[in-house]
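Design job #97: recover the sequence.
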């Protein structure tokens, strides 16, 4: 997701800041950034199960790394609180990813 999203945003608005957000239990993009290439990580169960991949793809990494300005890692508690707030305040039903 960060690859397509960041490429689209930066193509249309190069001055925009793109911030990738990852669940701490499945932070494969952050691990790849640190290593300079995609690496396999150990994952744990997460509320963001739709994003739970052990290794970011090579093409996606190359694109996202070039167009992402910052990466933020969030905890399971922060994900749970965000879901709860959307349900309470917006009456929306969302999933962790």
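Job complete. Output follows.
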């Amino acid at each position: 997701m960060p690859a397509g999203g960041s490429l689209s945003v930066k193509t249309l608005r190069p001055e925009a800041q793109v911030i990738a957000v990852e669940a701490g239990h499945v932070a494969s993009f952050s691990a790849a950034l640190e290593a300079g290439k995609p690496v396999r990580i150990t994952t744990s169960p997460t509320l963001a199960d739709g994003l739970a991949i052990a290794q970011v793809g090579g093409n996606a990494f190359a694109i996202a790394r070039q167009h992402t300005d910052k990466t933020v890692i969030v905890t399971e508690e922060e994900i749970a609180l965000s879901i709860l707030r959307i349900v309470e305040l917006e009456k929306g039903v969302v999933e962790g990813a």
